[in-house]
Amino acid sequence: MTYKYSAISSHTEIPQETPTCKCSMCGEEISSFFVGWTMNEYQDDDRVCEEWDCWKEFATYNESSIPFEDYVENPEDVSREDWDEAVSQWLWNQYDIVKSTKWK
Fold first, then answer.
1. Half-sphere CA count of 83, side-chain side, radius 13 A
2. CB-based contacts of 15: which residues, under 8 Å, 6+ apart?
């Protein structure tokens, strides 16, 4: 199959069929998305737009996938502020969808 687009992050490039995808939380068409470090960037259900409300909702659904021990001092007693900070670090894995000839 030929892909006309790539989703590019700072560490990888993956094939894309279209120039946009949908945020798994709000359904908005986006050309840039975020994925939790422990999630699958190939799965549409793991892609989130840049809105903090979507990040919070996504993280709540996937809280068991967040490695809090990597982001907070005491993962057994996570404050709301620590939770927000952990989610921000966990989801700071941005992909931009761009036109590409790599997948021909």
1. 15
2. 3, 5, 6, 7, 100, 102, 103
pTM of the model: 0.90
- State the average pLDDT over residues 16-43: 96
> Three-state DSSP class for 46?
helix
CA-CA distance, 104 to 97, in Å (whole number)? 16
- Take residue 20 and report the two structure tokens written for it: 């946009």
For residue 62, give every residue at least 6 positions away whose Cβ sits within 8 Å of its Cβ, in sequence order, or none: 36, 39
- Classify burial at 75, counting beta carbons within 10 Å of its beta carbon; exposed 0-12, middle 13-18, buried 19 or more: middle
* Average per-residue pLDDT for the chain: 94
**What ranges in the chain are assigned the alpha helix state H?**
52-61, 80-90
> Could you give the CA distance from residue 83 to residue 85 in angstroms, rounded to a whole number?
5
